[in-house]
Structure formats: structure tokens, C-alpha cells
Amino acid sequence: MIFKHSAGLWYNRPAMINLDQLNAQQRAAVTAPLGQVLVLAGPGSGKTRVLTQRIAYLIEEMGVRPHNILAVTFTNKAAREMQHRLQSLLGDDSQGVWLGTFHANCARILRREAQYLSFDHNFVIMDSDDQQALVKRAIRELNLDEKLYRPTSIHAAISSAKNNLITPADFPTQSYRDEITKRIYERYQILLRDSNAVDFDDLLLETVRLLVDNPQVRERYARRFEHILVDEFQDTNLVQYELLKLLGSVHSNLFVVGDEDQSIYRWRGADYRNVLRFEQDFPDCLKILLEQNYRSTQTVLDAARAVIDRNKHRTRKHLFSERGMGERLVLYEAVDEHAEAAFVVDTIQQWVTSGKARGSDFAVMYRTNAQSRLLEEAFLRAGLPYRLVGALRFYGRREVKDLICFLRLVHNPDDEVSLARVINVPPRGVGEKTMVALQLAARQANLTAGQLLIELGEQGERSAHWGRFSGRSLLPLADFGSLLAGWRRAAAEGLSLPGLFDRILLDTAYQEYIDDGSNEGKERWDNVQELRRLGYEFREGGLTAFLENLALVSDQDTLPEEAGNAATLLTLHAAKGLEFRFVFIIGLDEGLLPHARSKDDPEEMAEERRLLYVGITRAKDRVYLVRAQQRSQYGGPEIQEPSRFLEDLPDSLIQRQGQRRQRERWESPESLALRTRRFSAAQAQTSAALIEPRFHPTDRVRHPVWGEGIVMESRIQDGDETVDVFFESVGFKRLVASLANLELLPKT
DNA sequence: AAGGCCCTTCTTTTT
DNA sequence: GAAGGGCCTT
Q: Which residue among the candidates A25, A52, A234, A262 is catalytic per the annotation?
């Protein structure tokens, strides 16, 4: 071993890499010679372990300086996890490794090399909402029909072009629609740059462009990164692949780890064929298969394999486990989505009550975020704790986004998207007309709208632009301008991030604006406070670091690290890289998994299959596959067909649970729905700890004495629920729910 | 300019 | 079954 520090310190070192703990294949990967290494790692085969051990090996055994290592992951979560593991493996020796997502690493490079770029270093990063708004704006500016050219679909086309290194100039125009898309793309790029902004895709694309156009810059980075390691290589897209080649153009020590079978981001440009491309581009690369699974029982693996082996064009792997056969997978067919959720919750509760499992041993996975709502309700009713990954859309909340946009404006007044969003928040009399006047005046003065506003605010009547606006629009604009100018001055004079935050809240009377005293108002204000708390963590790094973090950290990353005793609810996509003793996969119906939108495209269908594969292979011990015979998709209930993937599972691996009986013929869907609701309500009454009100305003209820009434209000008080009801017979009554024996009636 | 109401439309997954 | 857009009124 090479100790680079004084000998007296060696015993303070954390445990060092121990090759004996690895199996032969893992060891071969960790200790592979210089050059290109392709590790095809099945699920649960110790992929992350191999990656971190490899880095440790490079540093400890090969004497590589951390500074010369670049490690790229796909998600922030994975980056954090690896950072953590490196820290415990290497201690401070892990400092200096460039570790992060593709996007974060690119943002870092772009900010450093701003002098070579067409935007300056304090650029903002537009998230999907912003991008959408900008595409819409481009479409409007070109006087196009939004119905015909939907911002979502145009944006998808632009994004896909960017992921394939296609600039507006190169955009292929085989149809009239392509022609239009190309023009929108051009306009969109101009709008972005005028705002001194880049979008997610630009982070990668502009970095590639930077490295291609500036050989000396490329040389500098390529020289520096002696070793490049990539996680989830199957999910890289063309731009990312190019980027790796550019950054590796001097040393070409590329260590990539991936699994074609777990490629689930095709829709985002990911191309698992990059694995094949890699083998072609580097014919001498060392290829290592990790096939021993340390996670699941053999039955789980067999089931997963039965699903995935139907896919073509892949390296077949023969996953094996030494954990024994284990139990068969349970298949449960519920009558509808309510019963589906009830089955999940009941089953978890039984396991937990039996003492054989803890809540945190369970995960419930689904195809679409919309499916989480019923589950949440069922968990709440049962008093079972859960944590929900993503879907919270914390950053998508209006109040959160508003404040981020104020901050973005302070940071970069040219940001038109943010300006358009908050110039009238709270309402100060700036409408469409005023915005048009502002933009016109700005264009004539050759300023951005934000710059013009700041000048109005700073100079007041002395400004040359003062006379440009009519009386009606002038004051609100000058008003906002002086706010913005004041914030910028304060920030420049060193006001801390929390201080700035508070000043913005105060100046805009934001609390009065969003907190109207209702429950929702209170919640909105809580969200603001939560954002402030996040900002507090960045009081050192300042505004730039905070905004960059907000842009690059997704809702998926807001998952509380400590699960406590809570079960995890998450999409199949979000489940990748995680493991749980018990896995429920719900919604195994045609149209949902596989999703209806993948029906016509074999490639997409193959990806749906991989999604299920990823889900099943998350399980250590048990898998529950759940579906519903009937489901309310949108509006009315619809009969569901079982997922085609269920047919691929041999009976020997499956144990059916519950009745498969179809509804009795004479029972109408309406009465069935009614029965299910009664069942749910009855269940609610028996459930334990009250977390959420059972009654809500406008609910109809029946009291044993006073008869039917309407709920006016309900709240949790001292662990019980206090309900205000207006009864037809006696009028207004305030009741304690646990004593009053109220019956919840079906909605009419 | 702003708020309210009714209409349509659409729902995949996320850095 | 929600969210956004269009159209209405104030």
C-alpha cells in the first residue's frame, strides 16, 4: 500500500479496500489495467461497490491523485451515495475527485470557461417548466397555432434534436412540420440566449461544443482527467457519449458500468446501444460480466429473467444467487383500484403486525405518478407511515417557483421567463398591455426588459425612458423596477442569502399574498419557509450556488434519507438503484404497464418490459404483483385487461392470492363502486392514529339522532377530529368524530 | 386589470 | 378529475 501521508497518521485511516471481499469478476474489474473497461453488471451484482472500490484502488494502489479522476453518475442521489461510500473508504483522500451528474459537471465546466461561450458565467439553467414557457413564447412570437404545434411536442422534438447533437441549422426538414419546428427551435435558442440562459440539454451540448471548438480547452480537461468512470452507462445519450470521448481524448482510461436490461430512459434520448458503440469504438476494451446477485432470492431472479429474456438485442446474462429459492411471487387481482390499494396496505399491515417485517422493508412501485394518490389515502386511513418519492413537486409549487424566480431575477435580470412570471406578483397592475409596452420600449432602447426596469427604478423621472410609458403602466413598472434595483444593490453590498430572501418577502408582502388563513394558505407559507431553510444551507455559497442547486436537484432527490419506519412509494423509474425486502408492483394492466403510449413502438414496448424487470429485481425477498379488473382512468370506470407481461411468468413461480371471480352478472358498475366506497369508509373507522381529517367540507354524513347533514369544516385537534356539520333537522352542530358515530354517505 | 366560470384537453417516465 | 385556456363580468 502507498501511504502518501506521514506514517504517524496511518492508523487513523478508515478501512481500506479489501480485495478479498470481492468475487473473482468484481476483483477483475476493480484491478483492471489501464485502458477501456466495460462492466456489464446485472442488478444486485455490486455495481456501485465495484465503482467505488475502483476509485479507491486507483488512488491507493495506483497512486492516482483524486484531482485527476472524473466520476459521472446519472442522478444526484447516486452521486451522493458514491461520495458517501468514498468518504468512508478513503477518508479525506476522496476529496478532490470530480464526482457528480453529467449535468452538474457540465455546468461546472461552463461556468469556468464562460469566456469561450455565447453567454456569460452567471447564466441561469431553465428547468422543464421554464423551457415549456419559452417554447410557448417562441410559438406565439411566430404567430403559430398552439393547437397545431403543441409546446410539449415541439419541446420534445427540440430536446431530442439537442440530445443528438443537432443544432437549429442542421435540423432536418423532411416535412412542412419539420420546417416549422426548425423555426421554433431557432427562435427558442435566441430567446434562451437573450435571457442569458441555457436549458438542461444545452448544458451537455454547449460543453461538447466548447471542447470541439477550443482544442486548448479540450486538451486542458482531457489531460487532467486521467481516469473517467461512468455509472449507468446504458442510460447515456449521444451527447454524453461524445462528451466522454472528448474528455477522455488524451488518456482514454474509460471505466464504464452498465446493464442494457435496465435502460429505461430512451424517451430522454438515452441509447443503450452506446454499449455496443463502446465495444466498436474501443475494440481492445476489457469486458467483464457481473452475474452473481447478492440481493434477491433465486425465485425473484428467475421471474425477472422470464420477463426480460423476451427482449432481443442484448447480452444474455445468467444471474444467480446463493440466497436460496425463497418464496413464489404473489399475484393479486383486485376488483378495482381502491381494492388494489387496500390489498397493499392490508398486506403490509399484516406483515408489520406479525413482527416479521418493518414498514421500511416495503416499497410500492407504479408506472405513473397519478397512481400514488389512492395509495397515499389508503396509507393515511390505515395510519401506516409512508414516504413518497417525487411527485410532491415541491419545486413546482407556485409559491416556491415565484420566489425562485425573484431570486433568479436578482441574479440575472435578463431572465425573461422569470420576469414574466413575477413582475405582477403580487398583482400590481401589470397586465398584457403593459408587458407589450415594456418589451417594445426595451427593444427600442436596446436593453433587456429587466435592465430597463432597473433603470426606471434607479433613476425615476430622470430616466430617459420615463416618458415612454402611459400613466397607467408607468407606476407599476417603476415600482417593480425599484424593488429589483434595491434587491440587487443589497445583494451586491453583501446581504446574505437568507437576508435577501426575507427582504423580498417583506418588500412584496408575500405572506399576505399567499397565506389567506386557509389550510392551503398555511401550507403555501410553510413551503416558502422550507425554501428559506434550504437557502440557509447555502448562505456560504451564495445565490449562484443556490440557484444552480435548485435547477439541477430534482424532486426525486428530496427523498428524506432516513426512512424511519415508513414504507416507500415511488415510480418504477425512481426505483432504479434501490432495494427493498418486499416489493409491490401495482397496476399490472394493459395500458398502464405496459403504458398505452408504448403500444405501437416495439422499442418502447421493450422498455416497458425493462421497467418491470427493474421493479422485480429491486426485491430481496418477496414480490407482490397487483392489478385491478376495473379502474377509473379518467371520468368513468373502465374494464382492464391483465398486463401481457404476466403471461410470461411461469405458473411455477406464481402464487395467486384472493379470488379471481369476476363480478356477479347482476351487479351494476355503479353498485359495485358504491360497495367499494362503503368498504373503504368502514375500514377508515377501524383504523388507528388520526393523521388526516376523515371528513371534508361538502361531505354528506348521517348521524344516528339528527339524520343527514353536510360537513362545513373539519380539523384534527388533540388527536381527534372535530367536525362542524349542518344538519337538515337541527342546524349547525360541532361534533367530536370518535364519539359522534357519524356515517360518511356516498357523494351524489 | 383581475377574478370567476365553464369549457376542453389530456396524463409516462425526469436530469 | 385537474389544470389550463377562453370568455365573461366587475
A: A262
Residues 247-266 of chain A sitting with CB below 7 angstroms of strand B = 264
Is A723's pLDDT higher than 50?
yes
Distance CA A55, CA A677 (A): 55
Cα distances (Å, whole numbers) of residue A516 to A79, A393, A507, A510, A523: 40, 22, 18, 11, 10
Residue A89 above 70 pLDDT? yes
Q: What is the pLDDT of residue A406?
A: 94
- Inter-axis angle of helices A542-552 and A102-112, to 10 degrees? 150
Q: CA A685, C1' B3: Å apart? A: 40
| pTM for the model | 0.81
Measured CA to C1', what is the nucleotide nearest A373? C1
**What's the angle, vertex CA A676, arms to CA A671 and CA A681, rounded to 5?**
125
Residues 191-230 of chain A sitting with CB below 7 angstroms of strand B: 200
Active site residue A232: yes
Distance from CA(A423) to C1'(B7), angstroms, rounded: 29
- Please list, in sequence order, all residues whose beta carbon lies within 8 angstroms of the beta carbon of residue A209, skipping any fewer than 6 positions away: none
Q: Decide: helix, strand or coil at residue A469.
A: coil
Distance CA A205, CA A144 (A): 27
Q: What percent of chain A has pLDDT over 70?
A: 90
Q: Spell out the alpha helix ranges (H) of A497-634.
A: 497-507, 510-514, 519-536, 542-552, 572-575, 602-616
Determine the nucleotide nearest to A146 by Cα–C1' distance. C5
**Active-site residue, from A232, A235, A340, A608:** A232
Tens of pLDDT along A408-419?
999 999 999 899
Answer for A634: CB within 7 Å of strand C.
Answer: yes
pLDDT at A18 over 60: yes
**Amino acid A433 CA to nucleotide B2 C1' distance, rounded Å:** 13
Phi-psi region of A113 (alpha: psi -120 to 50; beta: other; left: phi over 0): alpha
pLDDT for A290: 94
Is the pLDDT at A175 greater than 80, yes or no?
yes
Tell me which amino acid residue A395 is: Y
Q: Is A207 a catalytic residue?
A: no
Spatial contact of A74 and A61, defined as CB atoms under 8 Å apart: no
Please tell me whether any atom of strand B lies within 7 Å of the Cβ of A102.
yes
Q: What is the rounded average pLDDT of the residues A483-502?
A: 93
Instruction: Give the CA A635 to C1' B5 distance in Å.
Output: 21
Whether A667 shows a pLDDT value over 50: the answer reads no
Q: Which nucleotides of B are covered by protein (CB under 7 A)?
A: 1-3, 10-15
Q: What are phi and psi of A255, to 5 degrees?
A: -120, 105
Please say if A618 is a catalytic residue: yes
A518 sits in which H/E element? none
Spell out which residues of A between 10 and 49 contact strand B, using CB within 7 Å. Answer: none
**Whole-number average pLDDT of chain A:** 86
Chain segment A371-419, per-residue pLDDT in tens = 988 898 899 888 999 988 876 667 778 888 889 999 999 999 999 989 9
Rounded CA Rg of chain A: 29
